[in-house]
């Protein structure tokens, strides 16, 4: 044994374990020059973060189980949604002024079941195969919709023809580099017209575990989180695309879900497995929309009067401020 009473070199204890190296408080992984080493250290740091988070979660769960009924209520996690900046245009469901406006706006005949939606779906000039397939699949989602392809015809000439043939809405799918990237929705005959940026388009064959082809039943429509006056207008535009009498026997649902001003569209079929469990199958297609402008009247890019235009540098000053 050595002088300090510890094991000597002949005791078979082996070399001492290496001490854990701790980085200085001001050290950053980005300071590592070697790319592979930097990536490796970043992954180790993320793994350590996950372990600490999981250990803390397990500790809190054990404390709650030990306290039983005396446990304090769970803290509500802070998210961008529940920390949203207050918008003065948020609609109160009991507001008489809003109820009057909705009873007299352009969509009132639809909600009063005086008109039946009839939709024309068209594209930008000379569409490519992916855009064509997307329009065909969109026509199977929206009942009483018809697909026609533009051949150099301007929208200003298409709209009067649509009105003459009793179409209630016009949908234009724009593309860039063979990929659908925009959607124009115009309510006929007097507007309004909404222009959306489209992204994350997935056709049916690109969706995993998709269900069988949709049937011809009129689907149910779900509109989520359209809370402001602008959001109400956009939600009513989407609702007016579908007949107001869904056929529940078809078990099909079209969902427009607004989250942080991105509108996610999904089309599902559901089945009741028991009294408490419901299974769903996505039928497709799926896509995401971002509102760029809302224009009074029908489409007019030169002399149109705009109700709302998204100005990124002026409006996107806070991540917690939303407009829909």
TrEMBL record:
Residues 117-300 form the Brix domain. It comes from Cardinalis cardinalis (Northern cardinal). Transmembrane segments: none annotated. PROSITE patterns: BRIX (PS50833). GO terms for molecular function: rRNA primary transcript binding. Residues 63-72 have a biased composition (Basic and acidic residues). Residues 1-13 have a biased composition (Gly residues). It comes from the Eukaryota. Residues 1-23, 49-78 are annotated as: Disordered. InterPro entries: Brix, IMP4/RPF1. GO terms for cellular component: nucleolus; preribosome, large subunit precursor. GO terms for biological process: maturation of 5.8S rRNA; maturation of LSU-rRNA. Keywords: Ribosome biogenesis, rRNA processing. The keyword Transferase does not apply. Coiled coil: none annotated. It holds the Pfam family Brix. Its main location: nucleus. May be required for ribosome biogenesis. This is Ribosome production factor 1. It is found in: Nucleus, Nucleolus.
